[in-house]
Design brief:
- The structure holds two protein chains of two kinds.
- In chain A, strand 2 and strand 3 form a beta hairpin.
- Chain A is 53% helix and 14% strand.
- In chain A, helix 1 crosses helix 4.
- Chain A contains four helices and three strands, in the order αβααββα.
- By secondary structure, chain B is of the alpha+beta class.
- In chain B, helix 4 crosses helix 16, helix 5 crosses helix 16 and helix 5 packs antiparallel against helix 25.
- The chains are: A alpha+beta, B alpha+beta.
- Chains A and B meet through helix 2, helix 3, strand 3 and helix 4 of A and helix 1, helix 2 and helix 4 of B.
Chain lengths: 114, 884
């Protein structure tokens, strides 16, 4: 078995949105590769789980898709973040940092709270 | 902008699942290709790279499956959540839910009911293969006497129409009565048809064969085809029926076939009864030679590729040629044609379409009213909307949710509407006059249910859009702060006022007309008939000439029946005649001796040959002189009883007793011995005509065919006299059927069917219009109240009483109500000439109908103010003020 870190529910969506914000429009494979790279290859995605997540994000109106050509001239579907997606991303980022901060405080030894 | 995109995407997924699926497939393949490219670039062998890429996807099919699941589930889950939310919302506001659902139920219910009727009668194609190519042909009188009059076709012309070269088949047919003998005698509807009839309709017998040219030969053997129903009933569905005999009018006919079960013949479509047997039409040479004898109906099937207009042109040319060739008979005759389906409904199509338009209008009003109620509630839901937006719901999501609420409302109403429609449809069928064709086809079937679903969705979207749009454009910040106002610009308020005025006007209009119709019906029912129809059974016995060739033989038959019927307990009087009230009359010319003949040469009166017991059987009262007696028979002095109007009109009020009249200058003198009350022969709405009753026994002076029997019984309990009558008739002549056995009351009820149908329809629409106007008016007042809640609160706090609030609301409404009512009354009077002909002893200026309509609608206005006002005054002033 490959060393796999299970993803928390909703974190994949957040990663997708963040990747799209920083990298601009991406196709599905590009997103998968980028997410793995950023994780320092600590994360081995099942690429098949990416597409349901993309559909959900599209349903919410946070990303939108358009067909285009890849660097090596293959036809692929490119996803881009929408303004509402950006809003959602920023809200999620804020929430995420609040939660990690909070959880971090619990996990650190007592007295070392800063 | 982008708010709508997800909704559009979703819509596309619903509408084009295959395209979406294809795209997903392409996308996943691209993923594998892209990854393979990468891996190959890193030095992996292409095959291994592809395998690895597919593996990382977790398998192409699995990935697809998983994506598909999300797509379907997400859409479904959202929709289900919205539906559940809508139901919860309705449960929280039961009054609102009841009113809106009731409004829509009424609107949808009558729409479905009327559509059911219109669909079966007008819209649905006839059940023949390629039915639009089956034409009805008739002849039109272009002469000066009755220009444009429609005539049946002269059989002699039929052959020439066949030569028009635009029809693949042309058939003659006619509806005729036949009596079936052997076993229980029975009178049935038969069609005499030419052999092409079956080819023209495109229908073949289910069993046996159609008629051939030999069958139609006058010298050929007699054959018959049975309807499926008759075959089941009289022959127990025996497959070996072919070749057996059936006795029709005393003549054995060989059964050559049985028609299919669902077959609806042209005769079924135009007559109230269903055709039971078909026999070949035989046109004797002398009939074919006389082209002035218009006797038959004609069907034709267009050749492939020929249009109705082309056929019309060709047929016109044939008519012109015939007019040249046979000027005596055909100079003023032109053939005309129309698709059979259109022809059958030619008299009812327009009124039915108008009816459909009217119910569509009513449904539109219902939608607008519900939209108004939703707008009024929208104010109360401002906070809810604001919270939804604040929680990050997209505009599209909120609109979808709101529209779902409306669709839920519409669906609930559609269920109620279907039930209501079933009831209304039955009511309509029960009251529909027999002149409405294809009533047997009326049923709540798949087509109707599909229509209902369509109407429900359309109404849901129609009344849901505006409030949804309005709610979705409220600014969250306003609503949460409590300062948001629902859209109530002067333009919107003006539009709403116009709508209320229009609704009230329509209600007033329909109420006035319904009032006039109902009053006409009441007046009609109080018109004296001149006879007493209660507890009288009427029956018809058409004695065929083959067995009863002479008037004396027919008289003897009826006298024998009368003599035996007298023995039956409960029978009080028996009369027979050549005609009964409601069943035709003959108008004849005559002269009164000693009076100068009129300019036209003859006076006119309705003549009847009646038995001695006739007057008692019908409960007519003698006014002067004596009734007919048994002694008034052949060989004694011819006598007559005349009606009161006869005396008044022809003798200037002098006594008619002792006068003599003659049916021709050289005919024997008939002495008038009695004067009897006037009878409205064709029912209560008919006009009186002078009447002359001659003794049936004095055959020599008036040898008409006796055919009708009337039996008066002591009480309704004795009405089942019919089996006894059947036994008696069978005992005298086992071959003789009874037909049209009915009580006179039933016949009279049938005679006023048209009038009653109209009264029921108008009353139904009026009730509906008033119900909708009530809801509509209430909706507007409720909206005003919801808008002015703080103001009402202030007023209440300042010491205003409930009464003040009512009055305040009333003053805002009174102009609208009065305006609407006055407009409606003016319209009812102005358009009155369209219904004037339908009224009976009621004028268009009938004050009570107008006053009643006005009062009822004023009551509606006051009621709306009180109901809405009560809600307003229940507001706690402090709560109301906090709203501000």
């Amino acid at each position: 078995m490959s060393p796999r870190t299970d993803l928390l529910q909703g974190t994949l969506a957040l990663m997708v949105l963040k990747t799209l914000e920083t990298m601009g429009p991406q196709h599905g494979y590009g997103l998968a590769r980028r997410i793995e790279q950023v994780s320092g290859d600590a994360l081995t995605l099942n690429h098949g789980t990416l597409y349901p997540a993309l559909v959900k994000l599209e349903h919410e109106g946070w990303i939108r898709a358009r067909w285009g050509l890849s660097d090596n001239n293959r036809r692929a579907k490119f996803y881009a973040i929408t303004p509402r997606g950006l809003k959602q991303l920023h809200a999620e980022e804020a929430r995420w940092s609040r939660v990690t901060h909070l959880v971090g405080r619990f996990l650190k030894p007592v007295g070392d709270a800063s | 902008m982008s708010g709508w995109r997800p909704a559009l995407n979703r819509l596309r997924e619903w509408l084009h699942p295959a395209a979406v699926e294809r795209e997903l497939d392409e996308e996943l393949r691209a993923h594998v290709e892209l990854m393979t490219d990468d891996l190959v670039a890193q030095g992996m062998a292409p095959d291994a790279a592809r395998r690895h890429a597919a593996m990382r996807l977790g398998g192409l099919d699995q990935a697809k499956e998983r994506t598909r699941d999300v797509r379907g589930l997400a859409a479904l889950a959202t929709a289900w959540r919205d539906v559940r939310y809508a139901l919860r919302w309705l449960r929280r506001a039961p009054g609102f839910a009841a009113v809106t659902i009731a409004t829509l139920t009424l609107g949808i219910g009558v729409n479905v009911a009327i559509f059911t009727l219109v669909d079966a009668v007008v819209l649905r194609p006839l059940a023949y293969p390629d039915a639009s190519r089956v034409m009805a042909i008739w002849e039109v009188d272009t002469g000066p006497r009755t220009p444009g009059a429609r005539m049946t076709v002269a059989p002699g012309n039929l052959g020439d129409y066949r030569l028009a070269d635009v029809f693949s088949a042309v058939a003659g047919w006619a509806i005729r009565a036949r009596s079936i003998g052997g076993g229980e005698p029975e009178a049935v509807q038969a069609e005499e048809v030419t052999p092409e009839y079956f080819e023209t309709l495109g229908v073949a017998p289910a069993l046996g064969r159609a008629f051939t040219a030999d069958d139609a030969d006058a010298g050929g053997s007699r054959v018959a085809l049975l309807s499926h129903g008759l075959w089941q009933r009289r022959f127990a569905s025996d497959a070996a029926v072919l070749g057996r005999r059936i006795i029709l009018d005393g003549q054995p006919h060989v059964i050559v076939g049985v028609m299919p079960p669902g077959f609806t013949s042209p005769g079924d479509l135009v007559a109230a009864a269903r055709t039971a047997v078909w026999v070949p039409a035989v046109y004797p040479p002398e009939l074919l030679a006389n082209r002035g004898d218009h006797e038959i109906r004609v069907l034709a099937r267009l050749l492939p590729g020929i249009t109705v207009d082309q056929a019309r042109t060709r047929l016109g040319a044939v008519s012109e040629a015939l007019a040249e060739q046979y000027p005596d008979t055909n100079r003023d005759v032109r053939a005309a044609l129309q698709p059979l389906g259109d022809d059958i409904v030619r008299d009812v199509r327009q009124p039915l379409v108008v009816l459909l338009a009217l119910v569509a209008l009513i449904l539109t009003i219902a939608c607008v009213n519900v939209a108004n109620l939703l707008l009024a509630r929208g104010v109360a839901r401002r906070r809810e909307m604001a919270v939804r937006f604040a929680l990050g719901a997209s505009r599209a999501r909120v609109v979808t949710a709101l529209v779902t609420e409306c669709l839920v409302l519409a669906t609930l109403a559609a269920v109620g509407g279907t039930l209501l429609a079933a009831w209304v449809t039955n009511l309509l069928i029960a009251t529909a006059p027999a002149t409405l064709p294809r009533l047997a086809d009326v049923s709540l079937d798949g087509r109707v249910l599909a229509y209902t679903a369509l109407v429900a969705v359309a109404t849901g979207l129609l009344f849901g859009m505006i409030p949804a749009w309005q709610a979705s454009h409220s600014r969250p910040i306003d609503a949460l702060a409590g300062t948001g106002r629902a859209v109530a610009t002067p333009a919107v308020m003006r539009w709403r006022a116009t709508l209320i005025v229009a609704q009230l006007a329509l209600s007033a209009f329909l109420l006035v007309w319904a009032g006039l119709m109902v009053k006409s019906l009441v007046r009609l029912n109080s018109v004296p008939l001149g006879f007493d129809p209660t507890n009288v059974v009427a029956a018809q016995m058409v004695l065929p000439e083959t067995r009863y060739p002479t008037p004396a033989a027919r008289l003897q038959f009826f006298e024998a029946v009368t003599a035996r019927l007298r023995e039956v307990p409960g029978v009080r009087a028996i009369g027979f005649a050549n005609a009964l009230p409601m069943r035709g009359a003959w108008s004849s010319g005559f002269r009164i001796d000693g009076l100068p003949p009129p300019e036209s040469g003859f006076l006119q009166a309705a003549f009847q040959a009646v038995s001695v017991g006739y007057f008692d059987a019908l409960g007519m009262s003698l006014e002067d002189g004596r009734l007919l007696r048994d002694e008034d028979a052949d060989g004694t002095e011819p006598v007559a009883v005349v009606s009161r109007l006869f005396e008044r009109r022809y003798l200037n009020g002098d006594s008619a007793i002792g006068r003599t009249l003659r049916r021709a200058p050289t005919a024997p003198a008939i002495r008038i011995v009695g004067v009897i009350a006037d009878v409205r022969r064709e029912g209560r709405a008919s006009t009186l005509e002078p009447q002359v009753y001659l003794p049936a026994a004095q055959i020599a002076i008036y040898p008409v065919r006796l055919a009708h029997l009337a039996v008066r019984v002591d009480s309704a309990a004795a009405l089942p006299v019919v089996p006894a009558l059947r036994t008696i008739v069978e005992g005298i002549d086992a071959e003789q059927p009874l037909s049209q056995v009915r009580t006179l009351d039933e016949i009279l009820y049938g005679a006023s069917a048209d009038r009653r149908f109209r009264a029921v329809l108008f009353a139904m629409f009026a009730v509906l219009a008033v119900a909708l106007a009530s809801i509509g008016t209430y909706g507007v007042v409720a909206f005003v109240v919801s808008q002015r809640t703080p103001e009402i609160g202030v007023r209440l706090a300042m010491g205003a009483t409930t009464w003040h609030i009512y009055r305040w609301l009333l003053t805002r409404l009174v102009v609208l109500v009065l305006g609407g009512v006055v407009l409606g009354l003016i319209a009812a009077r102005g358009l009155g000439r369209y219904v004037e002909g339908l009224l009976f002893q009621v004028t268009l200026n009938d004050a009570a109908s107008y006053a009643g309509a006005a009062l009822m609608l004023l009551a509606v206005g006051v009621g709306a103010c009180i109901v809405a006002g009560r809600q307003a005054t229940r507001i706690d002033p402090t709560t109301a003020l906090r709203y501000e």
